[in-house]
Here is the input.
Amino acid sequence: MTFISLQENLKQGLAIVSRVVSKNINLPILNNILFKVNKSNIELIATNLEIGITHQVRGKIDSEGEFTVDSKVITDYINLLPGDKVECEQDGMEIKLKCQNYKTKINIQEASDFPLIPKVNKENFYSASSEDIKNALSEVIFAVTNNETRLELSGVLLSFAKDSLTLVGTDSYRLAEKKIKIKSNYEAPDNKVIVPARTLQELIRVLSSFKDDDQLEGAGEIKICLSDNQILFIFGSTELVSRLINGSYPDYQQIIPMNYKTRVLINKNELMRAIKASAIFSKAGVNDVALDFKAETGKITISSASSQVGESSVELNSEIEGDNNDIIINYRYFLDGLNNISSDTVKLDLVNSGTPCVLRPEKQDDYLYIVMPIRQ
Here is the structure.
């Protein structure tokens, strides 16, 4: 097996797949990357048995073959080579690499020992802008719980329809929902799946690593294919496959208030600054900050008090429609939501102090964030 590829192409390909590699004492082969070289392309493959990733690298192929090699060794070495052509030749159980005045031999293992990557039918798929997918995931994934006792909450719910995708993340204390436009060629396009947060964090990382010249190769669109227990993401020359989480996602729409008694429009940055100032005086471990809305004056008072530290109160001007109201919230959760709203003005809806507070961008209906109140 012999091929030639540019150091830059190999470096990027290894960067994309190597992060999936797991340090597995019981199955050392998972520390490796599989190279599959055939007539048309050079494939780099890695897996940790939950996620599998394949990336195609361009190059000149003289003869076919496949082998696995230690991920850290090959990645570290390729990264240090000059930006020129790299020649790779397999000789028994080692590969010879040559690039300008650099020559090396690296021990390899049989490709037959490498785990199989699950196959997902690619005929039916949903497609969307990869930028839309990346941004939408970033806007909901932070709300997902790290607690694996409720496995269904350790992933993001993807609800597919013919022309829309709804993404939801929650840890039962707060919830983020984002809707984006997609296309589908499924005959029955409605599908709901729960994808592990770890998979989607990896997807965000890989999508963020693509440069402008990669966009020209089709990485600007992402295709999503489903099977009974796997999901496949295809973008550019990269494929990422993952297991799905089995379980029933909570019927979260029940907790979204259908009506409100108080609606507030306020400058996001002013609100964030006031909450951060009051947060200094919140009770340790409780993170409580009180919001008091006065409709007749159009003012919000943000306050907190701690017997150890002291107290704080900030008054802000806003537009308030409806009744006077108040709520005590976890300021960390509240700030997380505000950080993921892109508009300068935030819309805040409230029923009473015992129901969830709903945050939205002022003029967009494609994103909402819910924070449960702290009950006294």
In short: Residues 256-371 form a domain with the DNA Polymerase III; Chain A, domain 2 fold (CATH 3.10.150.10). The mean pLDDT is 93. The first strand starts at residue 2 and ends at 6. The chain has three domains: 2-113, 126-243, 256-371.
